Amino acid sequence: MLSELRHVAILALFAIVAAKKDEAPAPVESPVWPMFAAVAVGGFVGSYLAKGAGIGALAIALGATAGFAALELADAAVFKPMAGLSIVAGGHAAVATILFATPSKPLQATMYSVVGGHIVATLAGMFQLAFVPPQLAFAAKTVTVTLVILGQTSAGAVHPPATAFAFLFVAGNKGYMDAVGPIIGCTLLVLFQQAWVSVMPKAKSA
Predict the structure, then answer these.
(1) Are 174 and 94 in contact (CB under 8 A)?
(2) Which of 126, 124, 129, 121 is nearest to 164 (CA)?
């Protein structure tokens, strides 16, 4: 009886091994960063051609396309795999709109308002996390918005998307490390926008 059970067990083991060999290997996900690179290049070229043809709205939209795709490229190819850090946040959509669809300012002024505004918002969010007593937790969002507006106006770095970021930061129960990525993302968006502005052809005079 024991001998028969042993034979059955061995046959069952062979059957399991054979079945494992016949299983299709798990598909390997293709990296997405090459697609983001293609979108960034295509958007940049399209923006250049549209600006040269005098189609300003399309040039702006495609410039923003290129900038946001470049941000996602950096996120997917560098920051997530190498640092485990995401640099893309919802507020960056509003940042891209301001950078590309409103009159451009010099690099220093843009960095100060956009990145400086986000740094102020981050400090306000951290202050709220560290010092606002539990008795005021019900008003955490209101306190954060108040602190951000106070800090931004005092520093002369008013940037509305940063206030929204601080609001979501508190509402989403984020930690201190969650504040680093959005600041890096803003910095990269500003640098790309400044490069975009510098190489775009001048608008045709009437």
Answers:
(1) no
(2) 121
Could you count the other beta carbons within 10 Å of the beta carbon of residue 201? Answer: 13
Query: Model pTM?
Result: 0.79
**Per-residue pLDDT tens digits for 127-181:** 887 888 888 888 888 988 999 999 999 999 999 999 888 887 777 666 666 778 8
CB count within 10 Å of CB 102 equals 9
Q: What mean pLDDT comes out for the span 77-81?
A: 94
Torsional class of 173: left (φ above 0), alpha (ψ -120 to 50), beta (otherwise): left
- Quote the CA–CA distance of 11 and 123 in Å, as a whole number: 66
Closest CA to 106 of 188, 34, 194: 194
Q: Are the C-beta atoms of residues 115 and 139 closer than 8 Å to each other?
A: no
Q: Write the burial class of residue 182 (CB in 10 Å: 0-12 exposed, 13-18 middle, 19+ buried).
A: buried
